Amino acid sequence: MPSLGLVTLVVRDYDEAIAFYCDAVGFELLEDTRLDDGKHWVVVAPRGARESALLLARAVTGEQADRVGDQTGGRVGWFLNTDAFDRDYARMQAAGVVFEEAPRRETYGTVAVFRDLYGNRWDLIQLNG
Protein backbone atom coordinates (compact mmCIF):
# COMPACT_ATOMS: atom_id res chain seq x y z
CA MET A 1 0.00 0.00 0.00
CA PRO A 2 1.51 3.38 -0.96
CA SER A 3 2.09 6.01 1.71
CA LEU A 4 3.15 9.65 1.64
CA GLY A 5 6.84 9.81 2.46
CA LEU A 6 8.49 13.23 2.17
CA VAL A 7 7.05 16.65 1.45
CA THR A 8 9.50 19.35 0.37
CA LEU A 9 9.55 22.66 2.18
CA VAL A 10 11.77 25.28 0.52
CA VAL A 11 13.80 27.16 3.14
CA ARG A 12 16.26 30.03 3.19
CA ASP A 13 18.90 28.35 5.38
CA TYR A 14 19.34 24.80 6.63
CA ASP A 15 20.52 25.65 10.14
CA GLU A 16 17.79 28.19 10.91
CA ALA A 17 15.11 25.83 9.55
CA ILE A 18 16.43 22.90 11.59
CA ALA A 19 16.51 25.08 14.71
CA PHE A 20 12.94 26.28 14.20
CA TYR A 21 11.38 22.93 13.40
CA CYS A 22 13.33 20.97 16.02
CA ASP A 23 13.58 23.49 18.87
CA ALA A 24 10.37 25.53 18.52
CA VAL A 25 7.93 23.13 16.86
CA GLY A 26 9.33 20.00 18.52
CA PHE A 27 10.25 17.90 15.50
CA GLU A 28 13.23 15.60 15.48
CA LEU A 29 16.09 15.72 13.01
CA LEU A 30 16.05 12.40 11.17
CA GLU A 31 18.83 13.12 8.70
CA ASP A 32 21.28 15.86 7.75
CA THR A 33 23.56 14.54 5.04
CA ARG A 34 25.91 16.90 3.22
CA LEU A 35 25.81 16.62 -0.56
CA ASP A 36 27.78 18.26 -3.35
CA ASP A 37 27.69 22.03 -3.98
CA GLY A 38 26.80 22.91 -0.37
CA LYS A 39 23.46 21.14 -0.48
CA HIS A 40 22.14 18.95 2.31
CA TRP A 41 19.54 16.20 2.52
CA VAL A 42 17.68 17.36 5.64
CA VAL A 43 14.68 15.42 6.94
CA VAL A 44 12.65 16.42 10.01
CA ALA A 45 9.44 14.94 11.40
CA PRO A 46 7.24 15.13 14.46
CA ARG A 47 8.70 12.95 17.24
CA GLY A 48 7.69 9.34 16.68
CA ALA A 49 6.31 9.90 13.16
CA ARG A 50 7.75 7.53 10.60
CA GLU A 51 5.38 7.59 7.67
CA SER A 52 5.59 11.25 6.61
CA ALA A 53 8.31 13.85 7.08
CA LEU A 54 9.54 17.18 5.75
CA LEU A 55 12.49 17.48 3.41
CA LEU A 56 13.99 20.91 4.10
CA ALA A 57 15.39 22.08 0.77
CA ARG A 58 17.44 25.29 0.65
CA ALA A 59 16.45 27.62 -2.16
CA VAL A 60 19.23 27.83 -4.75
CA THR A 61 17.60 29.82 -7.55
CA GLY A 62 15.84 33.16 -7.55
CA GLU A 63 12.57 31.46 -8.42
CA GLN A 64 12.91 29.09 -5.46
CA ALA A 65 13.86 31.96 -3.14
CA ASP A 66 10.69 33.78 -4.20
CA ARG A 67 8.65 30.82 -2.91
CA VAL A 68 10.17 30.72 0.58
CA GLY A 69 7.39 31.61 3.02
CA ASP A 70 4.59 31.56 0.47
CA GLN A 71 4.54 28.09 -0.99
CA THR A 72 0.76 27.79 -0.88
CA GLY A 73 -0.32 31.30 -1.87
CA GLY A 74 -1.23 32.27 1.69
CA ARG A 75 -3.38 29.22 2.46
CA VAL A 76 -2.71 26.86 5.32
CA GLY A 77 -0.51 24.26 3.70
CA TRP A 78 0.48 21.92 6.53
CA PHE A 79 -1.47 20.30 9.33
CA LEU A 80 0.32 19.26 12.50
CA ASN A 81 -1.82 16.75 14.38
CA THR A 82 -1.55 16.49 18.15
CA ASP A 83 -3.07 14.28 20.80
CA ALA A 84 -2.70 17.00 23.47
CA PHE A 85 -3.55 20.39 21.98
CA ASP A 86 -3.17 22.51 25.13
CA ARG A 87 0.23 21.00 25.94
CA ASP A 88 1.66 21.51 22.46
CA TYR A 89 0.11 24.95 22.00
CA ALA A 90 1.64 26.16 25.29
CA ARG A 91 5.05 24.58 24.54
CA MET A 92 5.19 26.06 21.05
CA GLN A 93 4.13 29.52 22.26
CA ALA A 94 6.81 29.41 24.96
CA ALA A 95 9.37 28.51 22.27
CA GLY A 96 8.45 31.61 20.24
CA VAL A 97 6.09 30.14 17.64
CA VAL A 98 3.73 32.88 16.42
CA PHE A 99 0.06 31.91 16.38
CA GLU A 100 -2.32 34.03 14.30
CA GLU A 101 -5.25 33.35 16.57
CA ALA A 102 -6.36 31.90 19.87
CA PRO A 103 -7.31 28.22 19.78
CA ARG A 104 -10.82 27.62 18.53
CA ARG A 105 -13.19 24.70 18.84
CA GLU A 106 -14.63 23.45 15.57
CA THR A 107 -16.95 20.54 14.87
CA TYR A 108 -13.95 18.42 13.84
CA GLY A 109 -11.65 19.39 16.75
CA THR A 110 -9.47 22.12 18.28
CA VAL A 111 -7.28 24.19 15.97
CA ALA A 112 -5.05 27.27 15.83
CA VAL A 113 -3.13 28.65 12.86
CA PHE A 114 0.57 29.39 13.29
CA ARG A 115 3.30 30.61 10.97
CA ASP A 116 6.71 29.06 10.57
CA LEU A 117 9.84 31.20 10.60
CA TYR A 118 9.30 32.10 6.94
CA GLY A 119 5.58 32.88 7.14
CA ASN A 120 4.13 29.60 5.83
CA ARG A 121 0.79 28.90 7.51
CA TRP A 122 0.19 25.72 9.51
CA ASP A 123 -2.71 24.33 11.54
CA LEU A 124 -1.99 22.84 14.94
CA ILE A 125 -4.95 20.54 15.28
CA GLN A 126 -6.40 17.96 17.63
CA LEU A 127 -9.15 16.04 15.90
CA ASN A 128 -12.19 14.84 17.85
CA GLY A 129 -12.50 11.18 18.63
From TrEMBL:
Segments forming domain VOC: 3-127
Domain of life, source organism: Bacteria
Gene3D superfamilies: 2,3-Dihydroxybiphenyl 1,2-Dioxygenase, domain 1 (3.10.180.10)
PROSITE patterns, alphabetized: VOC (PS51819)
Protein name: VOC domain-containing protein
